[in-house]
Hints:
The chain is α/β, with parallel strands linked by helices. Helix 1 packs antiparallel against helix 2 (54-74) and helix 11 packs parallel to helix 13 (334-379).
Amino acid sequence: xxxxxxxxxxxxxxxxxxxxxxxxxxxxxxxxxxxxxxxxxxxxxxxxxxxxxxxxxxxxxxxxxxxxxxxxxxxxxxxxxxxxxxxxxxxxxxxxxxxxxxxxxxxxxxxxxxxxxxxxxxxxxxxxxxxxxxxxxxxxxxxxxxxxxxxxxxxxxxxxxxxxxxxxxxxxxxxxxxxxxxxxxxxxxxxxxxxxxxxxxxxxxxxxxxxxxxxxxxxxxxxxxxxxxxxxxxxxxxxxxxxxxxxxxxxxxxxxxxxxxxxxxxxxxxxxxxxxxxxxxxxxxxxxxxxxxxxxxxxxxxxxxxxxxxxxxxxxxxxxxxxxxxxxxxxxxxxxxxxxxxxxxxxxxxxxxxxxxxxxxxxxxxxxxxxxxxxxxxxxxxxxxxxxxxxxxxxxxxxxxxxxxxxxxxxxxxxxxxxxxxxxxxxxxxxxxxxxxxxxxxxxxxxxxxxxxxxxxxxxxxxxxxxxxxxxxxxxxxxxxxxxxxxxxxxxxxxxxxxxxxxxxxxxxxxxxxxxxxxxxxxxxxxxxxxxxxxxxxxxxxxxxxxxxxxxxxxxxxxxxxxxxxxxxxxxxxxxxxxxxxxxxxxxxxxxxxxxxxxxxxxxxxxxxxxxxxxxxxxxxxxxxxxxxxxxxxxxxxxxxxxxxxxxxxxxxxxxxxxxxxxxxxxxxxxxxxxxxxxxxxxxxxxxxxxxxxxxxxxxxxxxxxxxxxxxxxxxxxxxxxxxxxxxxxxxxxxxxxxxxxxxxxxxxxxxxxxxxxxxxxxxxxxx
Length: 768
């Protein structure tokens, strides 16, 4: 007896499965990915997150629990138990055999022969359960198939669907999104037919798959579906397809309608599977060998990367579904619909392969841009530098870096032209002309910048590029090009790249990215909790990522300050050769003082940046009270320009906010400890190098240490992430002078050896 409020119980199955999946994924990532845990003889903690088959491991348990809990609430368990037959047990054996063979394939790796044998044995359970495709009258007009042929055809279709779905799992989010679409369609069909069990199964599967999709697409530590998940999903789709086509309880649909729905949902992965097998055989390869012939590979080769390729494939699936329904509604038979689909697919592949050739040719042309840039660089004598804010006073890491780049270029004999925004009027042009041969400035209106940010957002471009976009600046740059005739151009930060792009200066330009901004925005959005700000950061992260991909594709040189950021950006583009790393340096004091104030802790950083504000607030609110409880006279100095009101409001007896200081070294050199509890950052944090170069021991977070490979915990610095351990490290350094002196000395020597500006920026224009 079907409950009248079946939808409610489907919702319970969905929520239960999603909740259990969330708990299992978070627990497994915490206890498996972040730790060395041995599972079935495999040390999962040593594997990359994208190799962890957590998706498949979690999916089946979630579905089972979701369905069972819904049945308990419906008081249907007793009826179900009494109705269990041998066929049900056989079906359960088939599902679990595919699930476990997938797990074994993920963990140990199995030969194709063993995997196919188990799949065939599992597929045999469906004909034994009575699900045999014995009538194809709705498709090609054959009324009844012979017994042996119908069994063989059924097993063949099941095994083909399992492998087609398994091979369809090629890019992040594709298989889970495809499976969600199929489960929703089957769920609606079974709901229309009042089929309780299958509604609960599809609802529970959608719940688990949605959670996996979110982790797979947006999670900080991404997880993989694995063969256990993809093969189980393939078997489930094959089972639901046969059940929907054959079972009598789906009689609200005609046989042609049932066949049409199943054919449309499975067409793209199955036709792609058949095409790949045929191409492998024609080229003399093994049918189940590994290659890059699948649809998602072709899209990537055609220049459609990442989530755009995901959207493209899902759009293709929906396209075939819609045109099939349209043709069926006007009276086309299934055989004609199938032929039209195949023709459309052949045309699509032809278009894509044409785009692959065109993209490969464009790549070849773009690769030549580096050689043209090198020729221009070898002949260059004058360089134009574009900056988003006037580089004086040197009150932040960004202006410190670009000025040191300018000093290095001056030492190498280049003449420099600066084109910069200014906001306050009468900038320190005289001081800048000591470094730059010519200085051109353009006043920037913040209100106009906000308007341009909105315009760029609506047009799908990065908001910060819009904030620094100005027609006046572009006209000034064109004037500089016409009068000064620079040989090369350096865009300081990604936000200045659009000017060089619009003026077609690609082969004469260096994009000084400094940091991987999309990585910073990703960390920032994760730290914002809920609310509007989190969504703004999330949107800007994707827009910045597109801008970074564009810059790497069309500009021959993109410079970063850390290898970690370069490795991150290398995953976003095929143009890895267009990336360079020139780390930051530091101006050091000649002789660090051995005397220090045991009650002085300092933080150094430009306070207009959100990551520095977050670090200071974290320290004052969570770390500093622990220090004061054991050493009440301690004073925390916040040293950095442009502190906002919320930082100024921290001022009290034990907290001093200095703002900008003329002599940074003199201000901090007597500190007992420098702290850098940064939780949101990319690139090299100059604050660490500056403090070490002043002879001060530094307590910093793991996030910072990733960008400075020479850092060694408890040798030249202290690396801690939690508030209690940071407080303990600060107090231990203060109370143990010999240990403090050792950390400070090794930190100073490390910076002196590895982080001189001249050494780090040598070969900035032309690599030596």
